[in-house]
Structures are given as C-alpha cells and as structure tokens.
Design brief:
about 290 residues; alpha/beta; Alpha-Beta Plaits; Rossmann fold; 2 domains; seven-stranded mixed beta sheet; four-stranded antiparallel beta sheet; 8 helices; 13 strands
Length: about 290
C-alpha cells in the first residue's frame, strides 16, 4: 500500500476493556487495514496509549476520501472512551523550525538528514540570535532569520514576539532548539506544549556553566551523554524523549570530550525529532511513551 495513503492514529485515555476492539472496529467500518499497531498500559497512572498505522483496504481508494471516512468513524469512539487523539497523514513531513546560536553540529546534522530525506521533516526556516551560521543554512537552501536577543527584558520580549510570528506565518508544527542558548519564556513554552524539543549534555555527575566539557574533564568523568526533551516552563525538566551516553577515558582531552559530546548530541536530537515527526511520542504527564 502506498505510504501516501497511510494514516497514523495516536491516542491515550483511561484504560478500560474494549478500547482495542472499538478502535479496530472503527477502522474496519472505514474500510481500512492495520499495517502496524503498538500499545501500552501504564500501571502507575491507569492510562492506555496506542499508535496505529492504517491504510485503505482498497488500493483504488483516494487519500482524501479514506481520511474523511477514518476521521468520521474514529471520532465517536474517541468521545466514548474520553480519548486524547490525533490523526496524521504519514507521508506529510512535519514542518520544523530550527533555532540555533553558535554551535553548528546539531543544525548541520538535521539539515543534512532533512535534505537527504532520511528525516521526515520540512524546514521552512532557521532562526538564530547570531549571524554566524547564516552560510550553513543558505548552503542547504533554508531561509535564515537573525533575531538578536539583548539582555534587557524589552529586547527579549521583542525577539520572542518575532519568533511567535514566524511560527504562525510559516505554519510551524514543532520548534527544535538545536543548541539555542537562550531561555524561552514560560508563556511561549506553555503555548506550545509537546511542540518544542531541546537538546543538552548529560554528565554524570552534572556540570553547568559556559564550559561543561572542560569542567567534566577536570573531574575525570568516564561518561558523557545527551538528553532530548520537550520544553516546559520548568527549565530543562520537560518530558524526556531520548537519551544516550558515550564512554570516555583519561586519555581524552577536554576538546576530545567536547567533540564526543557534539556527536552524541546530534544523534540523540535526530532520533527525538524523527520519533516526534513519525508520531511515535505520546505525552504521559511528566514522562513520555515512545513507540519505536
């Protein structure tokens, strides 16, 4: 079945008997066939989570007709079970605005993956508070917007207003902070729940400040890593999507640690963006359910 006609249904609701049966029945009535299905019941919260990929059973079925039928059959089931749900066309790339400051590694990785069609996103713009990476964005043919951020509250508010207008004008679905070194306001974070993804290093133990890899080197750490998470008003404490670690040793310099850290940051962020764009991540309070 062509991917262009496949839809992805994601849902969560209080767990109770009959959910899977009802969802499958709605799909059958819509003349669809399930191509993949994943589900999870959280015993701690009593909530049920599900991701289903659905294609029309008839290969001659039109994409729009099938989508309307599926929507019409799922809606009453969702209402009956009190579901939070979404229906997506699998072939449509997720419109993604990337924000960056001076570090190029995550931006370059995401733009390369998007350009090579190995990441299901469309990037209508790159936003930065510096001019340094304009050339990189333009190399990939992506419009670059310099939005400077001063230290005074008025400058920060003006920059965020410009960011908000770009999100609206460009029909942005997710914002990716690819090493963007400015804190977004609580108001902005709250306006896009589950739609802003951040990446940062994860040291054991943790090191903060301007040169975390140098501080980690001085401490003699044996692991460096990265965490990708959704942004919330609680700084760096949003629901985690993906993490990874890399073993390092005494022979590595601070610059070696920083290079290793850049690699793992780029890989973790790419996986998090991919899973979000493929509608594999469902919010579960302060945590996430990730159907890989």
């Amino acid at each position: 079945m062509p991917l262009s006609q496949t839809h992805v249904l994601t849902l969560s609701c209080p767990d109770r008997p009959g959910i899977v049966h009802a969802v499958a029945g709605a799909i059958v009535v819509a003349r669809g066939t399930i191509t993949s299905s994943q589900q999870y019941e959280d015993p701690g919260t009593g909530r049920f989570f599900m991701r289903v990929a659905v294609a029309p059973a008839d290969e001659t079925d039109g994409e729009a007709d099938f989508g309307r039928r599926l929507l019409g059959e799922v809606r009453p089931v969702a209402t009956a079970f009190g579901m939070q749900w979404q229906l997506h066309l699998a072939s449509r790339p997720t419109r993604t605005l990337i924000m960056v400051s001076l570090g190029a590694h995550c931006l370059n990785d995401l733009l390369f993956r998007a350009r090579s069609s190995s990441l299901p996103i469309a990037v209508p713009a790159v936003v930065s508070n510096h001019e340094a990476l304009r050339g990189l964005a333009e190399f990939y043919g992506v419009p670059f917007h310099h939005v400077p951020v001063g230290k005074d509250p008025q400058s920060k508010a003006a920059a965020e207003a410009r960011l908000r207008s770009l999100v609206d004008e460009l029909d942005v679905e997710i914002v990716v902070l690819a090493r963007y070194m400015q804190v977004l306001s609580d108001t902005f974070c709250a306006s896009m729940p589950g739609r802003v993804i951040n990446i940062h290093h994860s040291f054991l133990p943790s090191f903060k400040g301007a040169k975390p890899y140098h501080a980690a080197h001085d401490r003699g750490v044996k692991l460096v890593g990265a965490t990708a998470h959704y942004v919330t008003p609680d700084l760096d404490e949003g629901p985690i999507i993906e993490q990874d670690v890399l073993r390092v040793d005494h022979a590595m310099s601070a610059d070696d640690l920083a290079a290793a850290g850049r690699d793992v940051e780029a890989q973790v962020l790419a996986r998090a963006v991919r899973w979000h764009a493929e509608h594999r991540v469902l919010l579960n309070g302060t945590r996430t359910v990730v159907f890989r």
